Amino acid sequence: MKKEEQIIKNALKLTKETDDHLSSYATKNSDCIKVKESISKPGEFDIRWPFEEDIDRVLYCKSYQRYVDKTQALSFFRSAHISKRSIHVQWVSRIARQIGRGLNLNLDLIEAIALGHDLGHAPYGHVGEMALNQKLKDSGFGYFCHNANSVRNILFIERNGIGYNVSLQVLDGILCHNGEMLSQKYVPDKEKTIAQFWQEYEDCWKKEGTSLRIRPMTLEGCVVRVSDVISYIGKDIEDAVKVGLITIDDLPEHVVKVLGVDNKSMINRLIGDLVIHSYNKPYLSFSSEVFQALKELLNFLSLRVHHHPVLVKENSKLVRMIKELYDVYYDDLMTPKSKTTGIWRYKEKMTPAYQKNAPELIVCDYLSAMTDSYVLSEYERIFLPIVHDEMI
């Protein structure tokens, strides 16, 4: 037997042995479904397991690299220790893998979903998302939500419009990761088909609120969905305390009693409670006590931090800035002789198939891919006057 054939045989044997040791509710490696045709070079053998391939495709895509200059909730405070999108996805991955290990689920699938879940997030987080959503609604095109845009990025925008071949289970987990939709019980949609996934993806762009209703097809997807909440809720509280928006004493007494007073204790309590009440079950669930405390804390975070008057005032400026940029890019795209902005260079380097997209979507792709600092520099370049030195 040739050496390559022996390697393949051993890899398949190891994959089967690993699948056999997973929970009966876990997604098996042998269940992996790729949504595109794989193009391999003759004689090429990939040692990676199916969902490991997806992890690498996420890690090496340009959208992942841009995480480093995209903020979370607090975009107006100059501190190296305020949460950024890049560290958020790593925290989600770490928490999700801890839960997955406790429930004996597929850790590669969990990691791929977690690392890729925010690839399509707009600059300045949900503020940018809100601005783009309003522009698409006003134009009559549809709606913008970052989870559907994350799927779009990895499948149809990366590599100048060629995209990557990523598995259905990973794409579905990304599409359905909405961390703002808190539940006491997370039940996967096990009967979901490829056709249903594509319909849900299309509905996210065309039917308002779709992303709030759809459920992941795997238990691993459910794990990432709840891990999104666990990863940011305590850290957003700590960040808000750090910049002076709230104090620790402002936290509801019942929440502190059940979940603790800092990020570490909250994460430990939430993970432990979830694993205990979900072990050997086809769904995830919190105890009533922990769920009520988490729900109360999420409400507190929304009212006292995310809707703090300081943030509301400054966020309104960001919404206006992104909308004005959208209008400039759209007008430029619709005026072929103009070509005054970078959107033409962006479009012309893409595949012919991509260039057939609606102009509203191309502008949305271009803007949503921008980092926070790039948006700011573009706005200054386009809208602010150039200050010249005095002529002598």
Radius of gyration of CA atoms, rounded to a whole number: 22 Å
Q: What share of the residues does DSSP label as strand, in percent?
A: under 5%
Shape: globular
CATH architecture: Orthogonal Bundle
Report the major sheet: 2 strands, antiparallel
| Derived structural class | mainly alpha
Looking across the biggest beta sheet, what order are the strands in?
A: 1-2
Counting DSSP E segments of at least 2 residues, the number of strands comes to: 2
Helix content: 55-70%
CATH superfamily: Hypothetical protein af1432
Q: Might you state the CATH topology name? A: Hypothetical protein af1432
Order of helices and strands: HHHHHHHHEHHHHEHHHHHH
Which residues form runs of ≥5 with pLDDT under 50? none
Q: What does the average pLDDT come to?
A: 89
Molecular structure report:
The protein is mainly α and 392 residues long. It has a single domain, classed as Hypothetical protein af1432 (Orthogonal Bundle). Helices cover 59% and strands 1% of the residues. It contains 18 helices and two strands. It has helices at 3-21, 50-59, 62-65, 85-103, 107-116, 125-139, 146-157, 168-175, 194-206, 219-242, 253-259, 263-278, 288-306, 309-333, 343-348, 352-355, 359-368, 372-383, and strands spanning 185-186, 284-285. The model has no long low-confidence stretch (mean pLDDT 89).
